[in-house]
Design a protein that fits this description.
7 strands, elongated, 5-stranded mixed barrel, alpha+beta
């Protein structure tokens, strides 16, 4: 009889670097996600301040992205349709006022609006350059009058 050689499969030794590579890859991906979250929040976030706070802190607020809410001063609108420039004044309950300049199309309900929220930055000349303009129109949000059961019965008895 002849000798037969039995070949046994060799078991590959576990590579300890494989686990380390997985951990390093996970940390790199996690760091990239955190970095993207922080940069997107800081670039789109805006601090909310009042008109009087903005006028009081005008020197330190120049160039910072802020969100301001206030009442639109009646008859202060200056609309330049050729250049798509809307300028108006806003005030708060203290009476402090700022001039807002918005470049873009004039909102169709601007004449009915009483309050506005603007997001942008204060310029060195004291004008607030608004990138976003949101209007609050009270006529759109008024509640419909409630009809009571008695009023409904009275209306039916008249017919």
């Amino acid at each position: 009889m002849s000798e037969s050689t039995i070949l046994q499969p060799q078991i590959a030794a576990k590579n300890p670097n494989k686990k380390l590579k997985f951990i390093i890859g996970g940390v790199v991906i996690l760091a990239a996600i955190v970095y993207l979250m922080i940069t997107s929040i800081s670039s789109t976030g805006a601090y909310y301040i009042t008109v009087s706070d903005l006028t009081n802190q005008s020197a330190s607020a120049i160039g910072k992205k802020v969100r301001v809410e206030g009442t639109i001063v009646p008859d202060s609108e200056d609309w330049d349709a050729a250049n798509l420039m809307l300028k108006f004044r806003m005030q708060d309950e203290t009476g402090a006022q700022i001039v807002v300049a918005f470049h873009g199309s004039r909102p169709s309900n601007f004449a009915q609006a009483t309050e506005a929220i603007v997001e942008g930055e204060l310029l060195t000349d004291g004008t607030f350059r608004a990138d976003n303009l949101l209007l609050k129109c009270p006529s759109r949000y008024e509640e419909a009058p409630e009809v009571t059961e008695y009023q409904s019965l009275d209306a039916q008895s008249v017919q």
